[in-house]
Amino acid sequence: MTTSSVDREVQKRLGEHAIRYTTGRRAVVAALAGSDGPKSASELHGEIGSRVPLSSLYRSLTILEEAGVVIPHYGAKGLTRYELAEWLTGHHHHLVCLDCGAVEDVEIPGAQETQVRDLVDSISAIASFTPINHDLEVEGRCARCA
Amino acid sequence: MTTSSVDREVQKRLGEHAIRYTTGRRAVVAALAGSDGPKSASELHGEIGSRVPLSSLYRSLTILEEAGVVIPHYGAKGLTRYELAEWLTGHHHHLVCLDCGAVEDVEIPGAQETQVRDLVDSISAIASFTPINHDLEVEGRCARCA
DNA sequence: TTCCTTGCAAACGATTTGCATTGGA
DNA sequence: TCCAATGCAAATCGTTTGCAAGGAA
């Protein structure tokens, strides 16, 4: 999905919830749409520039999370990284680098995704757990840190 | 693996690294060995009692992590939860409750584990990523919160 | 003795919040 | 207009660290 169509989808979604799509929020969504993985508030602050203060950034992220536009991803050193929700980006999994903490998104072929989903369902049934989402996290070393 | 045999294994491992297996560290290992999922420092503090102050608990967890005895898991609200490493407990995956934040361990049948491992390898190869560990996280609602 | 470990309190860093001001529908 | 959103600074909260006291080899 292109950055501009993401922007349109988000605008629509926020409109339905009577939430304003302000300059600061647009900046966050644009930065995330151009990213290849989850980003922390301070990383976003670095990309967006200081015209949006950190506190506003956090507030934007909270609002966007409540609206289902972004999803939090909790990582090392108490850092929370956010990415666009899967209805905007498509379902994917994560490669987490144990050295630098970077997280990269990966999509997998449909046949394998089906395998994973079946597995998730059978695990959940045994544990009386109601699955909502799943994430196959591969931890290791990224190409840069290898 | 029983709590007492975990205790013995940990003692051996720490001995090899010339790290003392003190009362405080034993308390942490015992609490984790009796747990059905990762626990945060404050949760452990609640279980162990205030005879071990939080700061010592954090230091014990750091030492045990360096010795490869415990593994950190990063979760909601910047909480880090620890659990015994898989060489002590066996490989498993996680059910994460989106409501209460509790994390439950689940083991899956060997055949399915093999599927997951193959999948992890093929994903990693495509991304030039060196996989070290993997974790299929199922997010949803636990039996209590459903 | 000689280090490692512990307790306490102060320090830190990410995130949140109070409050007055600004801005968008 | 009028309430939601913002900016700033102060407050929180999990976690880390400095330092002096305690404990094991």
Describe the structure.
Chain A is an alpha+beta fold and 146 residues long. The first copy, chain A, has two domains: 1-90, Arc Repressor Mutant, subunit A, CATH 1.10.10; 91-146, Ferric-uptake regulator, C-terminal dimerisarion domain (Dna Ligase, domain 1, 2-Layer Sandwich). The first copy, chain A, is built from six helices and six strands. The first copy, chain A, has helices spanning 3-16, 23-33, 41-48, 54-66, 86-89, 110-126; strands at 39-40, 70-75, 79-84, 93-97, 103-106, 130-141. In chain A, strands 1-3-2 form a three-stranded antiparallel β-sheet. Chain A has a three-stranded mixed β-sheet with strand order 5-4-6. In chain A, strand 4 (93-97) and strand 5 form a beta hairpin. In chain A, helix 1 packs across helix 2 and helix 3 (41-48) crosses helix 4 (54-66). The longest helix of chain A is centred in the C-terminal third of the chain and has 17 residues, at 110-126. The first copy, chain A, is globular and about 45 Å long. The mean pLDDT of chain A is 92. Chain A binds chain B through residues 72, 74-76, 78, 80, 93, 95, 98, 104, 106, 108, 112, 115-116, 119-120, 122-124, 126-143, 146, and chain B through 72, 74-76, 78, 80, 93, 95, 97-98, 104, 106, 108, 112, 115-116, 119-120, 122-124, 126-143, 146. Chain A binds a DNA duplex (25 and 25 nucleotides) through helix 2 and helix 4.
Q: In CATH, what is the homologous superfamily of the largest domain in chain A?
A: Winged helix-like DNA-binding domain superfamily/Winged helix DNA-binding domain
Strand element count of chain A = 6
Sheet-strand content of chain A, in percent, reads 15-25%
**Strands across the major sheet of chain A, in which order?**
1-3-2
Mean pLDDT across all amino acids of chain A: 92
Let me know the largest β-sheet of chain A.
Answer: 3 strands, antiparallel
Low-pLDDT sequence parts of chain A: none
The quaternary structure here is homodimer
The CATH topology annotation of the largest domain in chain A reads as Arc Repressor Mutant, subunit A
Order of SSEs of chain A: HHEHHEEHEEHE
CATH class of the largest domain in chain A: Mainly Alpha
Total helical elements of chain A? 6
Largest interface: A-B, 39 and 40 residues
Report how far apart the termini of chain A are: 31 Å
Question: Any idea what the shape of chain A is?
Answer: globular
Task: Provide the CATH architecture of the largest domain in chain A.
Answer: Orthogonal Bundle
Number of domains of chain A: 2
Proportion of helical residues of chain A: 40-55%
The radius of gyration over CA of chain A amounts to: 16 Å
- Secondary structure class of chain A reads alpha+beta
